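FORM 7B: Structural annotation worksheet

SECTION A. Query
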Amino acid sequence: MTASTATALTHVRVFDGERLREPGTVVIDGPLIGTDPAGARVVDCRGATLLPGLIDAHVHVRDARTLDRLADHGVTTALDMGGWPPALLDSLRGMPGTTALLRAGAPAAAPGSVQSRMPHFPRSSLLAGPGDAPAFVAERAEQGVDYVKIIAEVPGTPGALSQETLEAVVRAARERGLRTVAHASAVAAFAAARRAGVDAVTHVPLDAELPAAEAELTAAEGRFVVPTLAMMEAVAEALGHPGLDYAHARAGVAALHAAGVPILAGTDANNAPGAPASVPHGPSLHHELALLVDASLTPLDALRAATVLPARHFGLTDRGAVAPGLRADLVLVDGDPLADITATARVRAVWCGGVERPGL
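SECTION B. Predicted structure
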């Protein structure tokens, strides 16, 4: 990687997070988007579109090479949704010239759950009841997490947190100013997470179509959803269970979108042994955007789902748009993704905090 110097991207169409602007000039001035092109290196970007750096709102990261793969495909911020030990994820934060990482640490789960059988899963993350919630959240806060992850399963099934425990985790997190994100891949689990008051649900049900009434409650209560359609598609194909149908997930996104629920792009990209399906880091976000469009979002909706909306809902006020003073997290792609969402995958150049990545 080369040190950042002032660069003027000329004749470039810009998706600024809200709309596509007429061709103009965008200045990269150190780590930020600037305004003065005087003396800058000039790059002619005719025929290309400049996007805010893409945000994948659900990944699992284990090493620096994974961050580089994300960055190479235009993902300049990634939200890790469950990783441990804390020292590992801390070592990957703040690395210049690559994807910026936020993290939840280990999620809250129940004894006997799938998570409880994962190698080295922290015992302190296994909550036997609501009384365990304050200590769990306090430990996450001490670790400096960016949000709290909770595993919501079908209520009453073995390895599921009780409704009271879900609610206790949400209360404890809210008292510390932390957002909560709940894993829920079944309709009953989705409803339990929503009733508990979580800020976000990640995944969308595979076992049945999400009822319109549940989507409307999700919207009315101000929740947002990260459907991870790329993972839902992969899981339905890999497991082949008769009751798990990707069509249910697709219909669920359509119902949520129609109800006005904010939809954020996330992939559940991982390379963990034993995961229900392996979703590649980087390319999968472009596939996710195409799946969202297939599920009723417009290309504009999909672009916002990977830029301004995750920035807004996770409090990332310094990114998610193209405007002076924001982080110079930028992706230059060939073509017009507002006309053809697959154009996001035709990455020509990427800047992470003003540092240009080497060419693909």
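SECTION C. Observations
The longest strand covers residues 20-29. Residues 246-259 form the longest helix (14 residues).

SECTION D. Sign-off
Analyst initials: ____
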